[in-house]
Design goal:
The protein is 9% helix and 58% strand. It has one domain (3-393): Porin (Beta Barrel). It has helices at 3-21, 84-87, 93-99, 297-302, and strands spanning 28-43, 51-67, 70-83, 108-113, 117-132, 135-142, 174-184, 187-195, 201-211, 214-223, 227-238, 241-252, 262-272, 278-286, 315-326, 329-338, 343-355, 358-372, 378-393. The chain is mainly β. Strand 11 and strand 12 (241-252) form a beta hairpin. The chain is globular and about 60 Å long. Residues 1-6 have low confidence and may be disordered.
């Protein structure tokens, strides 16, 4: 039996069990989603060639509370991918990247693959939490989100993610130990330490408190056994407009007396109008190290994310509007401007509710800018992606 059929049968069985247990009072919960997505990539250097792919994506989230003080969580992604990206991949790079796990434990497996398809299972959450009044201790693969802004997060040192990866809303997790203590209703003190597959350690402390209506956070630690990092974040309101910000500084501790440190700061505003229109504006300044840079959008789009590498230009500007045209149809338009390369990103999308828990979405991502060629001459490049997705939540 083909892996695809086995996969679908397993999902139907799990859904049936979930439906039967739904009405019972229980100390566990199982939910998730199944999505079917077609994608196409157009690159200006390959004008007559469309790169097309398909992904069947399932997520399962399991939570168990055996007693009041303990919570166990396990979540995994099941993905069947086939198409041109795998078929044209050099040295099986696509397969290797899909099975790569950056954590201590290798929990990403290509259980079936061929010249044009891959069936991958990846466990991205697996943690145990102990809670006792004001104290929480979480051990295992988990999401540690210290970000305050909505697009670029200089404070998110444990789980950096890409804004463009809309099909992974859960974001990656880290193999970590996290201790949280809540001295008051609006304050928390945290310590977290993470290790990855290369043996590098990220450890930091954070203190968050509220003053004058603003949530303020301060953090300090070590990033990837290499950089001393300091951070500041805040969120609050100016009248009825939300105002958020984050700043981070990273400096190699072995070269602490030189000028090789990097500074990043993001500022954001968002506002919901009375007619349900949501407007968001954000800007990022990223200090670029000497000799850094990319030569095309695809290199940045497909490269691993790092908190020190949130963008490829020094100044970055973002605006997004979203509006529910009716209870079933929602539209959104996001745009970025990159002055250094005279470039932009445009990302319109629409989502339509076909039935309870079943949505249909269209996404478009357009990149355009001028990059230097092999002779140092700046040439315009375009990189366009389109996605069509059906998604069922259960």
């Amino acid at each position: 039996m083909k892996p695809t059929y086995i996969f679908l049968i397993l999902q139907l069985l799990l859904y049936r069990i979930h439906a039967q247990e739904k009405e019972k009072v229980k100390n566990w919960e199982l939910n998730g989603y199944i999505s079917s997505m077609n994608s196409v990539i157009l690159i200006d250097s390959l004008k007559d060639y469309w790169i097309t792919d398909y992904m069947l994506h399932n997520r399962l989230n399991f939570t168990w509370r055996p007693v009041n003080s303990f919570t166990f969580n396990a979540e995994l992604r099941n993905r069947i991918v086939y198409g041109d990206m795998i078929k044209n991949s050099l040295d099986d790079n696509y397969s290797k990247e899909m099975s790569k796990d950056k954590g201590i434990l290798d929990a990403s497996f290509n259980i079936a693959e061929g010249k044009s398809y891959i069936f991958n299972i990846a466990i991205d959450r697996f943690w145990l939490k102990y809670t006792n009044k004001k104290l929480e201790i979480t051990i295992g693969r988990q999401r540690i989100n210290w970000g305050q802004t909505l697009v670029w997060n200089p404070n998110d040192i444990f789980n950096t993610y890409s804004f463009f990866d809309f099909d992974y809303p859960e974001r990656p997790g880290s193999d970590a130990i996290r201790i949280q203590y809540y001295p008051g209703i609006t304050s928390v003190a945290e310590m977290a330490i993470k290790a990855d597959s290369s043996g590098e350690i990220t450890a930091s402390g954070l203190y968050r408190f509220n003053t004058y209506g603003y949530d303020i956070q301060l953090l300090a630690g070590i990033l990837n056994s290499e950089d001393v990092t300091l951070g500041l974040g805040w969120s609050g309101n100016i009248f009825s407009v939300a105002f958020r910000g984050e700043a981070g500084y990273f400096h190699p501790y072995r070269q602490f007396t030189d000028t090789s440190g990097l500074f990043l700061i993001s500022l954001g505003f968002d506002y919901s109008f009375s007619n349900s229109l949501f407007l968001q504006i954000e800007a990022l300044y990223r200090q670029l190290p000497k000799g850094s840079g990319i030569h095309n959008f695809l290199a940045f789009y497909s490269s691993p994310m790092s908190v020190k590498n949130l963008s490829f230009t020094e100044y970055n500007f973002f605006i997004q509007m979203s509006y529910p045209f009716n209870p079933l149809l929602n539209g959104s338009l996001a745009a970025m401007y990159f002055p250094k390369i005279n470039g932009y990103y445009a990302g319109p999308s629409i989502t339509y509710s076909l039935a309870d828990n079943l949505d249909f979405s269209l996404y478009l991502q357009v990149f355009s800018g001028k990059f230097p060629d092999a002779n140092g001459v700046k040439c315009k490049q375009t990189f366009d992606l389109g996605f069509m997705r059906f998604k069922y939540n259960f």
